[in-house]
């Protein structure tokens, strides 16, 4: 399919991201693979680079608004940045050894990541909808004033960063879950902190993917042209659109996409 249609599709993906908060990588990478027949290695690298600009724009806006927990961003980044570069290093190893097919490995990895992220989000959505009074035991809070709390934050950041470096998926969604569960951030600072740490993470991940030689700027630029205005429009529509039905439909779609990625025909 001709890449001239890519800004059009990216615009609608941007609307979904702005409208529901669902991560762009979970939507754009499969779109590139299935609709535009882009090899998975090129799709992942191009998506990482494309997402970096959007995260930096959003992060700068939240920094101006002072809706960022800088301590959480700092200690997560100390783990996620080396973790993501390690993930990219794994891709370098797979590519240069030639023992495994990089595109096939990535196809399954992306599918597994989207499946895990979507299932966790869908279960949470269903519980909030049908069992709103259900209470779970509180998870331990990371105290960033202590060495142990910082070590835990860096460790979680490293694990998730590695997964982002490998697949481009979950730079926002899984970190948001961590920020809610272990940092107990209020809603005012959650989004800004999530976007800001993702901007730092994706910047260094982008450098790693550029070194792989699998970034296609003919994909990156059209994604920027379409997704940025789409996100802005989606954010406006978010004020009036019903969130839970929309999220349920999109999560169901992502489950089907992840199944297709894990078990390609």
From TrEMBL:
Q: Just give the chief location class.
A: membrane
InterPro entries on file:
TM_pro_TauE-like (IPR002781), TSUP/Inactive_protease-like (IPR051598)
Q: Which UniProt keywords apply?
A: Cell membrane, Membrane, Transmembrane, Transmembrane helix
GO cellular component, alphabetical, reads:
plasma membrane
Membrane-spanning intervals of the chain: 12-36, 75-94, 106-131, 151-183, 195-213
Give the membrane topology: Multi-pass membrane protein
Q: Which compartments does it reside in?
A: Cell membrane; Membrane
Q: Which PANTHER family match?
A: MEMBRANE TRANSPORTER PROTEIN MJ0441-RELATED, MEMBRANE TRANSPORTER PROTEIN YJNA-RELATED
Q: Which family does it belong to?
A: Belongs to the 4-toluene sulfonate uptake permease (TSUP) (TC 2.A.102) family.
What name does the UniProt record give this protein? Probable membrane transporter protein
Organism lineage reads as: Bacteria, Bacillati, Cyanobacteriota, Cyanophyceae, Nostocales
């Amino acid at each position: 399919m001709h890449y001239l249609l890519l800004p059009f599709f990216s615009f609608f993906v941007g609307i979904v991201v702005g409208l529901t908060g669902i991560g762009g990588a979970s939507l754009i990478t499969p779109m590139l693979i299935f609709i535009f027949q882009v090899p998975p290695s090129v799709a992942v690298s191009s998506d990482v680079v494309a997402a970096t600009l959007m995260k930096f724009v959003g992060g700068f806006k939240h920094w101006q608004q002072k809706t960022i927990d800088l301590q959480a961003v700092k200690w997560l980044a100390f783990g996620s940045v080396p973790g993501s570069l390690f993930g990219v290093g794994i891709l370098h190893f797979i590519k240069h050894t030639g023992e495994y097919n990089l595109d096939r490995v990535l196809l399954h990895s992306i599918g597994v990541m989207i499946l895990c992220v979507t299932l966790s989000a869908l279960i949470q959505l269903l519980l909030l909808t049908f069992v709103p009074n259900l209470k779970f035991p509180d998870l331990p809070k990371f105290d960033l004033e202590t060495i142990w709390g910082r070590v835990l934050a860096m460790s979680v950041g490293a694990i998730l960063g590695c997964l982002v470096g490998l697949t481009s998926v979950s730079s926002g969604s899984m970190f948001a879950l961590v920020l809610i569960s272990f940092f107990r951030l209020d809603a005012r600072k959650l989004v800004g902190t999530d976007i800001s740490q993702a901007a730092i993470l994706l910047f260094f991940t982008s450098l790693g993917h550029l070194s792989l030689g699998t970034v296609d700027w003919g994909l990156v630029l059209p994604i920027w042209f379409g997704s940025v205005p789409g996100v802005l429009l989606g954010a406006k529509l978010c004020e009036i659109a019903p969130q839970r039905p929309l999220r349920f439909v999109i999560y169901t779609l992502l489950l089907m996409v992840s199944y297709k990625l894990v078990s390609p025909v």
